[in-house]
């Protein structure tokens, strides 16, 4: 079972929790179900509620600091919508703009989605050295966007339109 997305009372994505935790929050009246898996119910002793896909906290939680979006190869591909940063075709790999062999980091600003061909062609060079300019600059997703990025594709596709747009 997929994790459940937790929204703040302000509808801003906050985190993901296990289904069990989500159900507990709903049963304790700390959250309401914003979207449920169609046709699925949680049934236990005295419990019968829809399986939540998205819940929203009833009380606004002040977030003292926003954790930065954790970097991941999958996240980079999703951020770049699986489009190669060098040619715009479908990307299946992640390229380090400054190669790791030259001290380039695993970071949002140093990685882009790339087709396997361009990744191979660029090899151990910077875009300038390889004569392969970036079609767009890499950027760091907001923590809220990153939260949505952690959901699977099918989960993101199923989100309400007003939420899914943030992760497009
Ligand atoms: Zn390419």
From TrEMBL:
Residues 71-120 form the HNH nuclease domain. It holds the Pfam family HNH. This is HNH endonuclease. It comes from the Bacteria. Coiled coil: none annotated. Gene3D superfamilies: 1.10.30.50. Keywords: Endonuclease, Hydrolase, Nuclease. One of its GO terms (molecular function) is endonuclease activity.
